[in-house]
């Protein structure tokens, strides 16, 4: 009986989906948002969410956030390494081009 009551509650109290909502002709555009700064792993690990009566398992949420933070750390470390390698390659290319230009210039 309780499950049937919950099912009826879901269908009667759920917000109407967009195709069935009345169209408002006085819709204001959303204000422009500021660009967000990149997340840091610590921000993900320390993020807290309000606990609800029938909410998600806080332990699983915390585990998932730690996993995401670890993957973000790995990605950011790889990005820094790639950027440093890019600078090294560009510097070596400039030096090689300068050497080639000097060799061909004095022939």
Name some characteristics of this structure:
elongated, mainly alpha
Question: Which helices and strands appear, and what pairs or packs with what?
Answer:
Layout: H1 2-13, H2 41-45, H3 58-105
Give an overview in words.
By secondary structure, the chain is an all-alpha fold. Helices cover 61% and strands 0% of the residues.
What is the gist of this entry?
This protein has 107 residues and is mostly helical.
- The chain-level structural class is mainly alpha
Helix count, DSSP H or I runs of 4 or more residues: 3
- Tell how many strands the DSSP assignment holds: 0
Strand content: under 5%
Largest sheet composition: none
Radius of gyration: 28 Å
Characterize the overall form. Answer: elongated
pLDDT under 50 segments (min length 5)?
Answer: 14-19
Taking the alpha carbons of the first and last residues, their distance comes to: 96 Å
What average pLDDT do the residues reach?
Answer: 78
Sequence of secondary-structure elements: HHH
- The residue fraction in helices comes out at 55-70%
